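Appendix B, record 7
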Amino acid sequence: MHYNFYGASDAKVKDPVYGLTPCDYYDLLSDIWCAETCAPRMRANWSSENRTLGQCSITSFLMQDIFGGRVYGVPLGDGNFHCFNVVDGCCFDLTSEQFGDTVLCYDNCPEQFREVHFAKAEKQERYLHLKARLLEALAARS
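C-alpha cells (predicted):
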C-alpha cells in the first residue's frame, strides 16, 4: 500500500507491544478519526475525504505514548503549530495530508509538550476519545 503522509517511506519503527509501524497506526486511525476528534475551530471543514484535518496534536501525543520519542510543531504563522513525531531519528507526520499539496518545513521546529496542549480541556478530551477508540481497534485485532 502507498502512504502519502510525511515520512511514511522511512517510518519503519515498531511499537514494543504490538510490533506495529506508523503506517499500521495510520490504517487503524483512518477508521477512527472523526468530526468529534477534530479541533473545534476546524470541525466545520472536516470530512471523510480529509480525515486528518484538525487531528495533529492528539494524534502526535498518542503516537508518543506508543513509540516514545518527541513531538515537534511546525509554526503555522497564526500562533498555532502543526504537530508531528520524531522517534529514534525517524520523523513522521500521520496527519500531514490535511495540507494537500502544501509542503511543510519539518526542520528546526520547536518541541511541543502535552502539558501545554492539554491545558485546553477539550483537547485532552478529544485525545482520550481517540485513545479509547484506538485501544478498541487494537483489541479487535487480537
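Remarks on this record: The radius of gyration is 14 Å. The first helix runs from residue 22 to 30.
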